[in-house]
Amino acid sequence: MLTLGWTDGNSFVPVAFNLLSSADSKVRINPARQSIDKRTVGFKRRENALTTSPESALSMLKQAMSAGIKAKYVLFDSWFSFPATIIKICKMNLNVIAMLKDTPKIHYTFNGEKKSLCEIYRTVRKRRRRAKYLASVTVELHDKEGNLVPARIVFVRDRRNRSKWLALISTDMNLPETEIIRIYGKRWDIEVFFKMCKSYLKLAKEFQGRSYDMMVAHATIVFSRYIMLAFENRNNTDFRTIGALFYYCCDELEDIKFFEALQLIIEALKFTLQKKLFLSKETIDEFLSYFVSSLPDYIKAKLLVVSCES
To answer: Measured between alpha carbons, how far is 164 from 75 in angstroms, rounded to an integer?
Structure first.
């Protein structure tokens, strides 16, 4: 099951999914042999199930963009980190932050030469052990059609094995290395999503069957449950979603700013009377007390509170 989700760093929402068919010809879906109308959605689903994982991921991205879902970055692990796939995503006006595979067959243009990820790591100078990342280099991605996309590769130390390293790639050249690492960490939200669906929402456990349509319907129901839980969790944790309370807080902040400004004006007036008119401190305090007493009660109360706090 290939899943596409959207996150702002706090809430994760599944957007689309595709149940891919097995590579085994004995159990592989063959929509041509089944009596299904080619005009139906079920037939289109079965056709999409025969595509490869990178093709299916690109299809879901186009589907999400056509639905009006906006995002700044596309995050994924090393399963889809092929230069051709990254270049196609960049053509959709989306930036990519992903984990890279250490595969000798995949090459990147570094200092005018095509090198594998391991060869690049050997040639770059490493930072100290306490640094947040080991090294950072600028490379170019290329595909069979000759398209080139500049990218930044950041090498970080593997926490599970300190003697090994991991590589992250970003097509946004303006991002610093620490920000690339931080944003890629947001991809962990989809792992929490899968854990929640499998352990608590009974994904692939609540129903058992061989019908492809049944499996799609079951996954859709489970994802809908998760969306409702994510919505309620956001309402309970984000104070900005509690109705008009957010606007009341904003109004209160504006009132505080107003009375603070009024207090500054009175202090400036007090300083001016003392310097220009050479009035005594007692005379100025008497004048300001009379001025404050003539103000409306709601302003006078607020002004006295601010004066005491200052």
So the answer is: 22
If DSSP codes are grouped into helix, strand and coil, which group holds residue 161?
A: coil
The pLDDT assigned to 309 comes to 42
B/e letters for 262-275, b = 16+ CB within 10 Å, e = fewer, are ebeeeeeebeebee
The span from the first CA to the last CA of the chain, in angstroms, equals: 61
DSSP structural state of residue 203: T
Q: What is the rounded distance in angstroms from the CA atom of residue 159 to the CA atom of residue 132?
A: 12
Q: Torsions phi, psi of 265, nearest 5?
A: -65, -40
201 CB-contact burial (10 Å; exposed 0-12 / middle 13-18 / buried 19+) = middle
Distance of alpha carbon 125 from alpha carbon 119, whole angstroms? 12
Q: Which of 158, 159, 183 is nearest to 169 (CA)?
A: 183
Joined together, the tokens standing for residue 160 give 């599970």
CA pair distance 101, 120, nearest whole angstrom = 13
Residues 241 and 70: their CA atoms lie apart, in Å, by 21
Q: Model pTM?
A: 0.71
Strand 108-110 with 73-76, pairing: unpaired
**pLDDT single digits (tens) 171-217:** 999 999 999 999 999 999 999 999 999 999 989 888 888 788 889 99
